[in-house]
Inverse folding.
């Protein structure tokens, strides 16, 4: 039986050392900024991006990978004897899934699966890393696919934005558009539901927004509830990160905790001051 290799995209923001250790191939999206085409996580890091963004006169845009980018990744792994499992950002907010599926036309009959995660950022990180670990332990292509589906169906993503301006300009605002015009000086709380950004609340301060997120999680998990995986991502906000982690640990039993920066490509659309709170309830 062939071993399985994992492909994901750069919105997962997996550190290169971790990706190499888990045999994860990362296909980058691009940030287009002041005439430069920058590969996400390669030509521009999260730290650089969030330092530069508040001072920028022109806002950047983003581009998905081409089908050829995925075809090259497939060819490389297939030539080494791997089956290939590709899990990418939600098709509801990016054309990356379309590129990954179009590339399959070059490999008829080959063992390649492409999954629309219906997620982005930290939930995608978690899913890609967990299926990669399962693959390293000998999981088959079907077993990897089933595990990924289970994770992506159960994970909960809640995020706070400082402003809806960036989502609106980038065209990714989805159902949260109903907050436009009413969210001035308010902090919108959003979720990913079936791969689409949807609103779940709005409050006047960041502190109240954070409290609301914890209350929503407690409503599902119960006080002291068990979390298999907790992921927290910010736009380079170390103090906020620490506060969220401390509060989460005081409220829940957490098996695994991961922190990170929101990738530059996602940062283009959420803007500075965003926080993502991602959890996978324990079965």
């Amino acid at each position: 039986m062939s071993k399985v290799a994992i492909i994901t995209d750069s919105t997962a923001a997996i550190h290169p050392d971790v990706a190499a250790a888990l045999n994860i191939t990362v296909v980058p999206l691009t940030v287009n900024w002041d005439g430069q085409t920058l590969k996400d996580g390669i030509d521009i890091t999260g730290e650089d991006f969030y330092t530069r963004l508040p001072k920028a006169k022109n806002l950047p845009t983003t581009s998905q990978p081409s089908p050829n980018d995925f075809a090259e990744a497939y060819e490389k792994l297939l030539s080494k004897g791997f089956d290939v499992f590709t899990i990418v950002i939600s098709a509801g907010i990016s054309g990356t899934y379309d590129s990954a599926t179009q590339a399959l036309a070059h490999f008829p009959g080959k063992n390649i699966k492409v999954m629309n995660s219906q997620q982005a950022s930290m939930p995608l990180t978690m899913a890609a890393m967990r299926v990669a670990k399962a693959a390293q332990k000998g999981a088959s292509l079907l077993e990897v696919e089933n595990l990924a589906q289970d994770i992506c169906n159960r994970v909960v993503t809640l995020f706070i934005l400082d402003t809806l301006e960036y989502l609106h300009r980038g065209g990714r605002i989805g159902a949260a558009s109903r907050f436009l015009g009413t969210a001035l000086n308010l902090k919108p709380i959003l979720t990913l539901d079936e791969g689409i950004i949807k609103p779940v609340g709005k409050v006047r301060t960041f502190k109240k927004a954070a409290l609301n997120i914890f209350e929503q999680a407690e409503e599902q998990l119960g006080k002291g509830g068990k979390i298999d995986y907790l992921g927290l991502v910010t736009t380079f906000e170390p103090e906020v990160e620490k506060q969220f982690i401390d509060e989460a640990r005081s409220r829940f039993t957490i098996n695994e905790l991961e922190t990170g920066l929101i990738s530059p490509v996602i940062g283009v659309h959420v803007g500075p001051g965003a926080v993502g709170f991602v959890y996978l309830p324990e079965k």
Notes: The domain at 4-29+64-153 is CATH 3.40.50.10440 (Rossmann fold).
